[in-house]
């Protein structure tokens, strides 16, 4: 009887271990980040599709962001992605989104406000960062990436403020604030900082949609799509 009881206890213990192991496989610690990447990818591709026919540059920028987020879904659904092809691909497209994606959005605003001077500065800055990335050490490469994306955001803030494009201004502020919060590891309360970054970009993407003229607003919306003449 005692042996039978021990056998049942051992079976239950093994069953619980198997459940915990299975749970770790299908629900890794960073599953919430995988989900936020999914939502970010959907928003980026959706808004890019809406902008494509009228504003190609910001559309391309958002497509790059969507690709980075899509690879992030896979990266953060894995238990130990470090060193894998998915990990390296996510790092590369995240760099691409910051170095080329955000400046492409800024070039879209330069286009609608006919600011060739700022557009040329952005293009030159991006070219310098792209070339220097081949020989700069990792920490310096990160600084140059932050510098070019920061300059692009500053351009958007300046143009949208000058032309009273409040949606564009709000989107740029959200991008900046989300980047400052999500630019480090850790949590704020129950939320991962990187998730806060992703959801901030999601809202910012839809605000960017509203900020560009001649694009149809979302269905059943009575809000004027752009506010340059507000």
UniProtKB/TrEMBL annotation:
TM stretches of this protein: 60-78, 93-113, 118-137, 166-184, 196-215
Keywords carried by this UniProt record: Membrane, Transmembrane, Transmembrane helix
Domain of life: Eukaryota
UniProt-recorded name of the protein: Uncharacterized protein
């Amino acid at each position: 009887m005692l042996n039978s009881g021990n056998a049942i206890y051992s079976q239950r213990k093994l069953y619980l271990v198997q459940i915990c192991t299975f749970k770790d496989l299908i629900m890794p610690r960073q599953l919430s980040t995988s989900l936020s990447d999914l939502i970010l990818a959907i928003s980026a591709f959706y808004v890019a599709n809406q902008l494509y026919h009228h504003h190609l540059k910001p559309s391309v920028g958002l497509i790059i962001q969507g690709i980075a987020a899509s690879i992030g879904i896979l990266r953060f659904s894995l238990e130990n992605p470090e060193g894998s092809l998915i990990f390296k691909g996510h790092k590369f497209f995240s760099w691409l989104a910051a170095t080329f994606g955000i400046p492409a959005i800024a070039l879209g605003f330069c286009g609608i406000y006919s600011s060739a001077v700022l557009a040329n500065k952005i293009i030159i800055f991006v070219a310098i960062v792209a070339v220097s990335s081949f020989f700069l050490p990792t920490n310096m490469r990160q600084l140059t990436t932050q510098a070019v994306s920061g300059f692009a955001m500053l351009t958007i803030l300046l143009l949208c403020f000058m032309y009273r494009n409040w949606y564009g201004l709000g989107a740029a502020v959200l991008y900046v604030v989300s980047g400052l919060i999500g630019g480090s590891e850790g949590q704020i309360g129950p939320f991962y900082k990187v998730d806060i970054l992703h959801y901030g970009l999601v809202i910012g993407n839809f605000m960017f949609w509203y900020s560009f003229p001649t694009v149809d607003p979302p269905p059943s919306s009575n809000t004027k799509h752009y506010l340059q003449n507000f």
